[in-house]
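From: lab user (bench 3)
To: helpdesk
Subject: output format question, protein + coenzyme A

Hello, I'm new to running complex predictions and I'm not sure whether the block I got back is the full result or only part of it. Here's what I submitted:
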Amino acid sequence: MARSVIIATGSYLPARVVTNDVLAEKVDTSDAWIRERTGIITRHLAAENETTSDMALAAARRALTAAGLDAQAIDGIVVATSTPDTTMPSVASKLQSALGSRGGPALDVVAACTGFVAALSVAHGWLETGLARNVLVIGAESMSRIIDWNDRTTCILFGDGAGAVILARKEDESRRGILALQLESDGALGTILGTSGGVSTTQTAGFLFMEGQEVFRHGVEKMSSVTRAAVAKAGLALSDVTWVVAHQANARMIIAIARQLKLPPERFIVTLDRHANTSAASIPLALDAAARDGRIAPGDILALPALGAGLTWGCCVICW
Ligand code: COA
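Helpdesk reply: Thanks, we reran it on our side. This is the complete output you should expect:
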């Protein structure tokens, strides 16, 4: 039976680490408030000349090294990002050129913080239809470029970075690989989280805005319900889930989701204390951290729920 299997992970975080205290020098906030309300302690921010495709490339190279694969073996690239280098070509196309791989599809997926789960669904389709055999799936974001650094309600929440996986078609008897995918959205909720600009309106990227409490409420409700739906689709019970690698937005949100799902919070991988919210990069960054430190082991069942602007939300269930 053919399956879509994550054979390697990689990630990249910019060198510059910014503490809450540094932000408190610029806006009216404090380390204590940020830690208590969000769980965030530090975030990485891209250097002035560092782009989303630079970060994607570094993460991709690490995943290729971990897989022991040459870039020529990659025959598909899908990048989840809302903060591309240019409107066109896509980050995926730039990455293909930088890696020196040729042929096969390369494109970006825009689904905000749900982007990585959406990108997995695209890559899974390519593998199932025989369009590709080894797909680089990446979440990469320069959130710092769309943040209003004078707005204390949003600037404390976000960070930059990239995470990559190689999703490969494998034919074996084991059940490892993607077991289920669930993607949902409600465009009518587009007004509670977004940017104030865009190409066809202001000809700028705009700044991120959100109604924090509303986003929080939908985040808990929808990431919980979509996890339940995806796990049931995989023919599993929530108690079968070894690790929940949820979108990293807020530690209180993760605890509330754990409560909704009646799962111990210890089963949730948490990296937002050091990475903050890196949008589409947050899940692959957390996956790479937990795979490399040995927490995630072969045979583990993973649930990857996310919610982002759109609103969009989804969950992928994987046997590692
Ligand atoms: N530092 C200090 N005080 C702040 C602050 C900051 N950085 N940001 C807001 N405040 C103030 C508010 O002005 C408010 O003051 P008031 O009571 O005098 O009006 C008070 O703190 C409480 O604000 P509130 O918005 O109720 O806080 P909260 O507990 O809801 O936390 C968020 C705010 C943004 C941390 C929280 O709503 C959240 O995480 N939402 C989800 C955000 C998210 O994840 N978005 C992306 C999803 S993909």
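A quick orientation on your result: The chain is about 30% helix and 25% strand. Let us know if anything else is unclear.
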